[in-house]
Amino acid sequence: MPAVVAMSFFSLLWQVLYLAIFVTTLYALVDALRTPAQAFPAMDKQTKGLWVGLLSVGAVLSLGAVFGFGGFLVILSLIAALIFLLDVRPAVRGISGDGPYGR
Fold first, then answer.
1. If DSSP codes are grouped into helix, strand and coil, which group holds residue 102?
2. 76-28-14 Cα angle (round to 5)
């Protein structure tokens, strides 16, 4: 009986982790959609279309993992979202005038 409880605990833990990755990826996608297209190449960060595409696929993969499909691919979603949020977003924020004091 304890093995069943531990298994359900770890299953729930993975579901929460997949949900957190989905929310992170969705947040990055919405932010990429709101950023002006000319800000990406101006800061040498590929194109808006590439980032929106990567983050869209990542959101679909991570949502699939929440429902039990392709959980092993969700790490790619997390990597794309973290690269966008930690590298691309700060760079394009500086050029789009969306700094700490607003527009």
1. strand
2. 50
Burial (Cβ within 10 Å: 0-12, 13-18, ≥19) of residue 67: exposed
List, in sequence order, every residue forming a beta bridge with 102; answer none if it has no partner: 99
Spatial separation of the C-alpha atoms in residues 38 and 25, rounded to whole Å:
22
Domain ranges of the chain: 15-96
Structure tokens at 5: 């409880």
Predicted TM-score (pTM) of this structure: 0.83
Of the candidates 24, 35, 34, the residue with the CA atom closest to the CA atom of residue 58: 24
Residue 90 CB burial class (10 angstroms; 0-12, 13-18, ≥19): exposed
Question: Is pLDDT above 90 for 30?
Answer: yes
